[in-house]
Structure formats: C-alpha cells, structure tokens
C-alpha cells in the first residue's frame, strides 16, 4: 500500500513538472517570434499621451514678384507728383492755372527737374506766369526762351532749412485757352519728374496729367453767342440761365455759359462778360 501511494505521488509530481516545462517552452517561442518581427520591420511606435494638435502647418510662400512689389510700395510710401487745374472747363481766350505738387513724398527733396508738355494748338503758356508756392524754393532756369508745347523747369531749395517733402503744391503755371473749332480736351502732361535728396540720390516719379475741357467759339472770352463781340446779348444769355449747375438735368446744353469753369452759372460768369464789355474797344 505504501509503495502504491509513493508511485502515485511521483506520478503527480512528474505530470506537474512536464506541464511547467511545456509552459516555459511555449513562452520562449512567443518571444522569439516577436524578436523576428522586430528585426524584419520597424519597431512598434510607443503610444504617446494625447496633448492636443500641436502640429504647425508651414506657411505657403508668397509669390516672389508680389513680395517685391509690396516691399517697393512700402519703401516708396505711395509717393507721387500731382497736377491740378484751376478749372475743369474754360472758354476760348480764358486763362487758367495748373499746379504741380507732391503727394506723400517721404524724402527731403532739395532739387527737382521736371518737364511739362501741352498742345500749343489748344493752349498757350502765359509768359512769366510760373511761380513757386513754397518758401525757399526757386526756379533756376529761364522759361521765356523755350519752344511752345514744352516747359523744362529746374527747381532748387535755398538751404538745408527748406526741404520739400510730404504733400503740397510747389509750382504754379498759367495757360490761356485757344479757340478750337470744336470742344477739345486740353491735356497738360508731366513727362518727367526727377527728384534728389541732400545726399545726391536721385529718384524718378511716375508721369501724370490733368485735362481741361476747352469750349469752341470765336476766341473772345464772353462771346457766348458767337457774333464776334462781347455785348449785352451775351450777358442776357448767361442771365437767363443763372443758377443752373452741374446737377441740373440740362447742364450739357448750357455748360458753355459757365465761363469760369466753376460748375455753376453764377455772378462770376456775369462779371466776366461785364468786364469784357467795358474793356473792349
């Protein structure tokens, strides 16, 4: 009986030992298989805790040409030269002025070379009418000997305390309308504007222009009925349309009576005719 119990005990222990060996063998095989997979491919990524989307999307580069234009525009400060006429519309023989100036110029300018062109068949430059509008700035060259149709003007500041910069009118020129056979656009063009600062650095500005409508007629200011003289008949025509302006529905039919180009038929136009009546031979 004792022998049989001992044999049963050893059999149980042997069975347990075999189960343990089998478990160890299967575990070893599983580790070996995982190692082979790791050698054959990339190791599995470790799972990171979720900290939100911190990925930065790279900015799309702007077009190089557009960047260059933007930089140049910023450096120039939107600076320009300007031409402004004293009237939008003039009658034959009527004088008007054109002013040259700066708009948002960022440099301190001490010298300027400009060229103004116009059609001498449509208007004429009024001799000795050119004048500077800023203290300490003068016209250096003589304009009286220049050919009709073009004015070459050189301006200079008289000392360090007289720079020209920013926005403002600098020069005024006088013109007189001719007597075209039909309504004509009189255009005054700035075809050159070269500026320089106190370091001698030169920079050219873009060309610009201004247009004045020149009415057809006899060439005698105030002769609105076209009979070759200024008389009470012209005065009556203007008086009958007194008070009409550019907002009136029939303005296109009567605007030739607006002799001073103010946009309204008013006392200024009557005064022009009255003066001509008194002064004419």
Topology:
Elements: H1 2-40, H2 64-76, E1 80-85, E2 89-90, E3 95-109, E4 111-117, E5 123-125, E6 131-132, E7 137-139, E8 150-157, E9 164-177, E10 184-196, E11 202-204, E12 208-214, H3 232-240, H4 251-254, H5 267-279
Parallel strand pairs: 2-12
Antiparallel strand pairs: 1-3, 3-9, 4-8, 4-10, 5-9, 6-9, 7-8, 10-11, 10-12
Explain what you see.
There is one protein chain. This protein is α+β, with helices and mostly antiparallel strands and 281 residues long. Among the domains are: 85-214, Sandwich (Immunoglobulin-like), CATH 2.60.40; 232-279, Type 1 dockerin domain (Orthogonal Bundle), CATH 1.10.1330. The chain is built from 5 helices and 12 strands. It has helices at residues 2-40, 64-76, 232-240, 251-254, 267-279, and strands spanning 80-85, 89-90, 95-109, 111-117, 123-125, 131-132, 137-139, 150-157, 164-177, 184-196, 202-204, 208-214. Strands 2, 4, 7, 8, 10, 11 and 12 form a 7-stranded mixed beta sheet that branches. The termini are far apart. Residues 38-44, 56-62 and 68-77 have low confidence and may be disordered.
* Main sheet specs: 7 strands, mixed
Instruction: Please tell me how large the radius of gyration is.
Output: 45 Å
Low-confidence stretches: 38-44, 56-62, 68-77
Order of helices and strands: HHEEEEEEEEEEEEHHH
CATH C-level of the domain at 85-214:
Mainly Beta
CATH topology of the domain at 85-214: Immunoglobulin-like
InterPro entries: CBM2/CBM3_carb-bd_dom_sf, Cohesin_dom, Dockerin_1_rpt, Dockerin_dom, Dockerin_dom_sf, EF_Hand_1_Ca_BS
Organism: Paenibacillus chibensis
Keywords: Signal
Protein name: Cohesin domain-containing protein
